[in-house]
Amino acid sequence: MIALEQEKICVIGLGYVGLPVALSFAKKLPTVGFDIRQKRIDELKQGHDDTAEVTTADLTGTKLELTADPARLKDCTFFIVAVPTPIDSNNRPDLGPVIAASKTVGPHLKKGDVVCYESTVYPGVTEDVCGPILEKLSGLKAGQDFFLGYSPERINPGDKEHTFERIVKVTSGDTPESAERVARAYAAVVTAGVHRAQSIKVAEAAKVIENTQRDLNIALMNELALIFDRMGIRTKDVLDAAGTKWNFLRFTPGLVGGHCIGVDPYYLTTKAEELGYLPEVILAGRRINNNVGPFIAQKCVQFLSSGDLPLKAAKVGILGLTFKENVPDLRNSKIPDIVAALKQYGISAMVHEPLGDADEAKHEYGITLASLDDYRDLDVLIFAVSHQQYIDQRADLLARVKPGGVVVDVKSALDPKAIPAGLRYWSL
């Protein structure tokens, strides 16, 4: 095993996960940050990160080598693959990015190199899918000539407290020596320490169940919200009361989007189905969470219908398009589900988003972002994403709803007592 100071790191993929990882390693070891998007590399070199995960100071003060040239990989010894692993339109795992990354790394592998994957996958992908690609393109044998590792990403976009260095890192390798080498590399930069998993498959499974567990807990809250709505009681009030018990788990209902929570369970269920097992609980949770957007739209329609307003004439404004508050990440947003469901009733809803990219919104969802100047005399105002900007402007935003109009508070971010008289209020 080579000494730590002899390692040269290469991080493949400089998105929400890869960029913070690369910058952390660059503080301690020679590090190359590679991305296939030249535009991304150019922006980072100019000190701009459109994910808002790192600052200009972080980028301008680093020794990280940024490149879109695969030839720069040839001198590296320790490769970290941090590319997305999405799902397709049928909710099946799309391994295209991780396969493409493996094809990028393969031709540059040398004897003794390590390739460690951080991308979320089902157990077996690293060794059974990626390993053979690396072997074919390098002419080397995994576990003998080069080595595989897996260390699942745990970065929470927008979270400035639980950063890469402050989250315990699960590590693994395909041999005892490679497992120790992977652990040693991450331990050099992760102050929270590392947890050595017994195998690569164990580490892969640990990652995929983290978000599956969260998804199911949120699904329970969403199902409770459906029940309590029929009872005429506010879900948040119930949860506040139940939450006074020391061991009550503090989850809340809401839209479940983003690149991880709404995606990762399908990696596990797909593999389970391939093995002949139908995972009923996990898929039930996914169905519940996927139906929250249409349910919110239906509540809007019910309110509008009760006021005898022609649906097609209704003026509806939605606040927020990103998958969570205070981040610019539009991946797997569930706000379009609300828009699409309202459209089925003939309602064309406006969407405002202060952080996400307008071109991406148009390209990914066909949504043209509106200006807040257009939010006047609204019949319905939907606080879909609780950006701090919206919370700070809540008085002004509420004033844009006409008397008798409806305020829909998806995340229960508003105080019902502060809603102006004459407006109707509903929260999930």
Distance between the termini: 55 Å
What CATH architecture of the largest domain would you give? 3-Layer(aba) Sandwich
Strand order of the largest sheet: 3-2-1-4-5-6
Round the Cα radius of gyration to an integer and report it. 24 Å
**Uncertain stretches:** none
| Biggest sheet architecture | 6 strands, parallel
- The top level CATH class name of the largest domain: Alpha Beta
The residue-averaged pLDDT reads 96
Which labels suit this protein?
428 residues; alpha/beta; Rossmann fold; 2 domains; six-stranded parallel sheet; five-stranded parallel sheet; 13 strands; 38% helix; elongated
Task: Describe the structure in your own words.
The strands form 3 sheets. The chain has a 6-stranded parallel sheet with strand order 3-2-1-4-5-6, with helices on both faces. It has a 5-stranded parallel sheet with strand order 10-9-11-12-13, covered by helices on one side. It has 2 domains: 4-200, NAD(P)-binding Rossmann-like Domain (Rossmann fold, 3-Layer(aba) Sandwich); 218-427, NAD(P)-binding Rossmann-like Domain (Rossmann fold), CATH 3.40.50. By secondary structure, the protein is α/β, with parallel strands linked by helices. It is built from 15 helices and 13 strands. Helix 6 links the parallel strand 7 (169-171) and strand 8 (194-196). Helices cover 38% and strands 13% of the residues.
What secondary-structure arrangement, pairings included, does this model have?
Layout: E1 9-12, H1 18-26, E2 31-34, H2 38-45, H3 56-60, E3 65-67, E4 78-81, H4 96-105, E5 114-117, H5 125-138, E6 147-150, E7 169-171, H6 176-187, E8 194-196, H7 200-231, H8 235-242, H9 264-274, H10 280-290, H11 292-306, E9 316-319, H12 335-344, E10 350-352, H13 358-365, E11 378-383, H14 388-392, H15 394-398, E12 401-409, E13 424-427
Helix pairs in contact: 4-5, 7-9, 7-10, 11-12
